[in-house]
Amino acid sequence: MKRPLDLLLIILVLSTLLLDACSYSVQVFTPPAPVASEPTQPALEFTPTFISPTDIIPSATPTLIPIRADTLSMLEIFNNLDLQESVRTLAFTPDGSAVAAAGGDTEDFAIHIWDVASGQQLAILGGHSGIVWNIAFSPNGQMLASVSSDGVARIWDWHTGDTLKILNFPDQVGSVSFSPDGQTLAVGGLDDFQNLRAAIWIFSTSSWQPLLKIPEYVNITAMSYSPNGRWLIGGGASRNVQVWRTSDGTSVFTLNHANQALDVAISPDNSIAATATCGFSVDDECTEGSVWLWDLSTGKLFNRLADFPDVVESVTFSTDGSSLIAASSDGTLRVYNTSKYEPQFEADPPGGNGVMALSPDGGLLATGGDNGEVRLWKVVYRP
What predicted TM-score, i.e. pTM, was given to this entire model? Predict the structure, then answer.
């Protein structure tokens, strides 16, 4: 499971806060003082292992058939990679030539990066002292950002293995996203655990100075920039997902859920938000996972895609917008067309846990599991 585990322990406390949360008006805080470049707590004594590109040259990205509504029947697994720890997060480089995975339980909190074509490991980035909840590559492919339960966000030059910047936070941070133009980085996490407060901090990537701090409740389990960069959508643990303007942090819509939302994706044309959640639960156990679809011109819910065996952990749109891909924590992978939102493909590989990422070109899909396995999928044409 990629969501922070402590959220499950505090969800019962939310009952008295949810009424306030549903009508909570986001305010833009005065930017906080510059974040120190070094952690206040002793860093984990771990020397990053980096395999030089002169030793392993990334293979040329293979010519791929995009994963979309008319190619789903040919989608299959073509490679398996081993993280050796529970997979919490996955991300592809912008050109799709490499894939990164991270997670960890008690010991290995490193980020592993592999060449997609050959399956060879390119780098192991070590430095976090807690579970790595989320990672993201910058749009130009030069940087990798990671956030962890250790309360630190690290910015890496993943080609060299160097840490470029360390950003410190009050508590664990679980979401990270670069803006489409690469000019800002958003980090979401706990701000005041005792009072169930969370926040999203937005930084300039040219100076790493803080620009905005947007308050929320509980924790930020879902967060994404819209493709046009105008909106930042996030929240989730409060059962709210907010739509904020990136220009000033003003809340535009509040998307209310029956349970917490764990992921959010925005369609390529910026018109629809899809949130991964639990539709129904009994005694805090999800009995049916679902994807909720929202019209971003009105903030209204217009569809629910249900019948997942467990909570939906990840959701994404195909690059052409013709398909919606969702994965639940039991490992079910399902793809819908977006013309009528009918299921077109389903798989249930053993060991899956709902962690998923689609390459920016739409040709590769990565899924993870609690057994540490990372599966790579592509469309295979067999005449």
Answer: 0.84
